[in-house]
Amino acid sequence: MAGHSVPIDFRVNPAKVSNPVERKTLLQDLLPLIEPFTGPLIETSLCEVPGGSHVALYCSDTMTLAVKLYFNGLISATVEYYTDEVNEHKISNDDGRRLERQIREKFDCSVAKVLPALKRAPSINPYFTSSDDRILEYDVDELLFSEQTEFQKVQIYHTKSFGNMLVLDDLQNLAESDLAYTHGLMNKGLENFKEKEILILGGGDGALLWELLKEKPKYVTMIDIDDAVMRSCAKHLKSVCGDCLDNYDGEHYKATGIQCKKALTMFEEQLSSLEIPVTFTQTSHYVPSFKEKWCFYQVTHKSLKT
């Protein structure tokens, strides 16, 4: 069960908004394009708002249409409806493309866009954000794990496209389909990990640990601040972490839950030198230079010391 909002946006000559006759004609011409989806629409409100813009509201038996006509010619309309089935779309993507063409032809505008319906308050949230504040929608159908710890909110969702997905503080972190990401993280095929002692700061999902163990290192120590991440991934991301999180202390590895700052200080006290892997190779993809890696270490090291 969910509400649905379908954004419909286009731009017209500002005179069509400021002129009362043209504004009325615009609204009258818009309704027949929307009514095949909503049914007959009745005007319930029409008013001017501060700034020279106008707002109109229409309703049918089961749907509403809200239209804001901005003074600068932007027309922002929203069709809203409610369904028991969360993925039931009254305006499909193909419908939206046809409606865009009809709007461009009817109003002689170069910009017209109909977005897929935004789901409003469904029982399982399908929306997440990127670190730069973009909205991402996943085809989630089940929440498998959720726990608020002293450090973060830990959740695992099942998605139809990517398998189970770890989400930390509402930011998607790792899915079962992300093996290529893990291989890129470890520079697989370019770094030699055999008989090496390796420290992982973070990585509580166990994916990097599991893939590194396949490279036959001497020993891997994984540090993660939140045991809830390791517990949940051991159960729900088994295809990612294998069985390495079933037992935190293995023959060639150890996983432990302490803060990275404390761990780095502890290991620096134990080691006489700190090795930073640097790869010099001719590849078609981007490889950070020694200077970039060294600068990253210096900045990170300084922040951990303060």
Automatic annotation (TrEMBL):
One GO BP: spermine biosynthetic process
UniProt keyword Chaperone, yes or no: no
Molecular-function GO term, any one: spermine synthase activity
InterPro entries the UniProt entry points to: PABS (IPR030374), PABS_CS (IPR030373), SAM-dependent_MTases_sf (IPR029063), Spermidine_synt_N (IPR035246), Spermidine_synt_N_sf (IPR037163), Spermine_synthase_animal (IPR015576)
Domain PABS, residue spans: 126-306
SUPFAM superfamilies: S-adenosyl-L-methionine-dependent methyltransferases
Gene3D superfamilies per record: Spermidine synthase, tetramerisation domain, Vaccinia Virus protein VP39
Key words of the record: Polyamine biosynthesis, Transferase
Pfam entry (one): Spermine_synt_N
PROSITE patterns, sorted: PABS_1 (PS01330), PABS_2 (PS51006)
Top-rank taxon, per record: Eukaryota
UniProt family annotation: Belongs to the spermidine/spermine synthase family.
Protein name: PABS domain-containing protein
Annotated source species: Cherax quadricarinatus (Australian red claw crayfish)
